[in-house]
Specification:
The protein is of the alpha+beta class and 383 residues long. It contains 13 helices and 18 strands. Strands 7, 8, 9, 10, 11 and 12 form a 6-stranded antiparallel β-sheet that branches. The mean pLDDT is 95. Bound molecules: guanosine-5'-diphosphate and manganese (II) ion. Manganese (II) ion binds next to loops.
């Protein structure tokens, strides 16, 4: 779950990481009530989930109330790289001596938390990583041991920070950021730029926080943030049923229902290989019951772009007969007028296929393998 900058900064402040003073506005009326308390210049920051807002025109400096109102009018509700600007963060403009980069993520190769630090922040860190990888300090932390002072010493040393005040500031932020990453089950926390001000203090001018979706259940404190994130009607319906709905390609016309992201990707690949395009997918996860499967099918069918449905299941915890029961229920209770191709493998496969055989002929076709299913689903819908 990716958070907006203003949400990330709230977590930062709660963790003791300094940020510029700021206010969130969602409409022009809120801006009007905020205006009297502002002193200029301010930085106007479009709240979207995509990165690189600066380059895309989503960050402005306003020198007066008039200028701010003008920017707000243009930015609010507009689209930045296909992401709707739902709010603006109005912040005091801070003057930076330097712009650093600081991030914490999981290094899957070493199975350890990794702290990244660079004095070349502010711009594309990917660019820095490509052009001058030596300008990024990388410090691994043994998760059993946790973050220790020597890690923080290594970080600033490798990063080339010599000023004692700046060094202390960076270390304090790194320590707090690491703790936030750890305790919030984040996949990534990132500050770019981490600004060094004239008085040698450091502040987080940007915030990128991505929480591991599988750990969300143990973070009820983040529920309020989630409610502020954009979610389509189908995404919400799926989440409330315990599934994950994903829009894939607006040009596609095949719907995919499967269990597990790996199998979903295989479905997408096989359909692409046969010259088709998947428009959306539903991940049933593990252990779906017939009743919920039927509801899941109903959710995918509500997408008007779906002209055929591929259901591919590898039964483990999930039982093929429950899946088949759900398919049967969906086609008998709902008004299904698109072809369905099902491929069931694993636990209770025979029972499942027997259930489907009772209604087959109507709209359900069976395939023995995934490649066959992909080919069939495109054939029955006329590609
Ligand atoms: P991003 O492009 O989406 O990563 O947005 P950022 O929040 O990182 O803003 C882009 C750039 O705007 C930063 O690298 C800074 O140079 C600048 N910027 C953002 N906030 C401030 C601020 O408070 N003061 C100053 N002087 N510059 C800012
Ligand atoms: Mn940034």
């Amino acid at each position: 779950m990716k958070l907006y900058e203003y949400q990330g900064k709230e977590l930062f402040r709660n963790s003791g990481i300094p940020t510029p003073r700021g206010h969130v506005i969602r409409n022009l009326a809120e801006l009007d009530s905020l205006l009297p308390s502002l002193s200029f210049p301010v930085v106007v920051k479009a709240q979207v989930l995509v990165g690189g807002r600066g380059k895309a025109g989503g960050i402005k400096t306003a020198a007066s109330a008039g200028e701010l109102q003008e920017y707000a009018k243009n930015l609010l509700g507009s689209f930045l790289k296909e992401d709707k600007v739902i709010a603006l963060l109005i912040e005091e403009k801070v003057a930076a001596l330097e712009e650093y980069y600081l991030g914490v993520t999981l290094d899957r190769a070493t199975r350890q938390p990794l702290i990244l630090f660079s004095r070349k922040g502010g711009m594309d860190i990917e660019e820095v990583a490509k052009e001058t990888p030596e300008a990024i300090a990388r410090i691994h932390v043994d998760p059993q041991m946790g973050l220790r002072n020597f890690h923080l010493e290594q970080l600033v040393k490798a990063g080339g920070v010599t000023d004692p005040d700046v060094k202390k500031g960076v270390q304090q932020v790194a320590q707090a950021l690491y703790r936030l990453w750890d305790t919030s089950d984040a996949a990534l926390v990132e500050i770019n730029p981490l600004m060094v001000l004239a008085d040698k203090t450091v502040v987080a001018a940007d915030a990128k926080v991505d929480i591991d979706d599988s750990a969300l259940f143990r973070h009820p404190e983040l529920e309020a943030f989630r409610r502020e994130l954009p979610e389509s009607e189908l995404e919400r319906a799926a989440r409330e049923t315990g599934f994950l709905y994903i829009d894939i390609d607006p040009e596609g016309n095949v719907g995919v229902i499967s269990n597990g992201s790996g199998m979903i990707m295989s479905c997408i690949d096989w359909i692409a290989r046969h010259g088709g395009k998947v428009t959306c997918a539903l991940d049933l996860g593990g252990g779906a019951t017939a009743d919920r499967v039927a509801r899941g099918i109903g959710i995918v069918l509500r997408n008007p772009k779906v002209k055929s449905l591929l259901i591919s299941i590898f039964g483990g915890i999930t039982r093929c007969d429950e899946i088949a029961g759900g398919i049967v229920r969906a086609v008998t209770e709902k008004d299904v007028n698109i072809p369905i191709v099902a491929r069931l493998e694993g636990t209770n496969k025979e029972k499942g296929l027997a259930l489907l055989a009772e209604v087959s002929g109507k709209t359900i076709e069976i395939a023995a393998t995934l490649p066959e299913a992909a080919d069939k689903v495109l054939r029955v819908q006329g590609r």
